[in-house]
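Hello, quick one for you while I still have it in my head. A protein chain has come my way and I'm curious about its shape. Can you walk me through what the tokens say about the fold? No rush at all, and the record is pasted right below.
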Amino acid sequence: MAHRPAKGLWPGPGFALEQPAARVAFAFYWLLTGLHGLHLLGGLSAIAWLAGQAVLGRRPWRSPAFEAAALYWHLIDVVWVFLYPLLYLDGRAA
């Protein structure tokens, strides 16, 4: 299965579908997926940084910062619960 950019479904010049609604839908798809990816990267970076500080003894393992990072990570999970059906399951029930 080819990735969407290989099929010409990347918004911009050379977009494979002619319908304006398809252009908007794929732009929305890439925007939301990219934003979610950036938030994942931020969450992973924060968790890695906190774990590194704890391993080096600069921060206790029971620091409230770990709870804040866990809450942020689970917020990303909850957002994905809504994004997945919105982006990937649209039209599958018909």
